[in-house]
Amino acid sequence: MKFIVNSSALLKELQKLSGVISSNNTLPILDNFLFEITDGKIVIVACDLETTMMSEITTESSTNGKITIPSKILLDTLKTFSNQPLTFIIDDETKSIEISSDNGNYKLVGQNASEFPKIPSVDSSVNLEIDSDVLANAINKTLFATGNDELRPVMSGVFCELSSENATFVATDAHKLVKHIRKNINSEKTSSFILPKKPLSLLKNNISDGGTVLFQYNEMNVLFKFNNTTLICRLIDGKYPNYDAVIPKENPNKLIIDKQELLNSIKRVSIFANKTTHQIRFKVAGSELQITSEDLDFANKAEERLSCQYEGEDMEIGFNSRFIIDMLNNIGAKQICIEMSAPNRAGIILPLDGQNDDEETLMLVMPVMLNS
Questions:
Q1: CB 258 within 8 A of CB 334
Q2: Does residue 372 have a pLDDT over 70?
Q3: Of 133, 156, 205, 315, which is the most exposed, with the fewest CB atoms less than 10 Å away?
Q4: In this structure, is residue 321 part of a structural domain?
Q5: CA 201, 205, 206, 210 torsion: positive or negative?
């Protein structure tokens, strides 16, 4: 089998797919890319048994066939080439691969393509078309809030609820929660499922601006198709917690403030906070927000005062600064409103601008107990 392909085009596709390949694969074949040549096209596949990603590029080839090629050595080699045609000659018997470039020849050995896992099918699926910017925005707003607890796998993904009216994306790690609603995504069939973190990260990094993404799902798998790329992943099995129950409905204390000012202030003050708890204290009175932190072990202390708009009773509440920083970095607004009810109840962060009419975002952060 022989085929000729442009080095830059091949490198671009392989770099896209390389995020799928795990560093500790249980099957050695999964360290390889699968190349499938059919009628002048190459479909390249990477798989880790949970996620499969495929990309298609054109080639010059008079024969059809399949081979798997070790990913690391192929990527490392391609990164060193200038833009040029590469000729691959594969011995179907021994699976040896010879690559010829303008500079020389390189030999390596592949594995039998029949050992590569079969590409999962998404049969009897529901189909949707989603604007790529809308999907990327939903992933950006939620992915950071997913958990890492292996004992609670359902919380390590993004929960997706589809109905005829809207799509709701939810992520939580029990300390912070994000609920993002899109009214311009709707499905004839009402359904819900949990999307894993890894394929969503791959999706976020690869969907281009302004296109559309074909979104298919059934009870086991979900498929995303965009441009020349297809991503299929297994859904997380399990029941997502009742997230609405933890969102406080009555929050009479409302604080409106410039997001960037608040973010910069928290970043500075949190440097002086305890390195274990990352605790900062908000004290709101009148139109002033006082942010303080303290690390008694090292006698570190910081305090800043910001002006704000505030309606409600004077109050003090503690938060983990890292969670607030994460939220403010991802909220995508210049002005925000922080709604609170009591020092032991969750605070709600809402964007006051930067949102489309057909989207709603709510971020929730659990308080930490203050040392008086």
A1: yes
A2: no
A3: 205
A4: yes
A5: positive
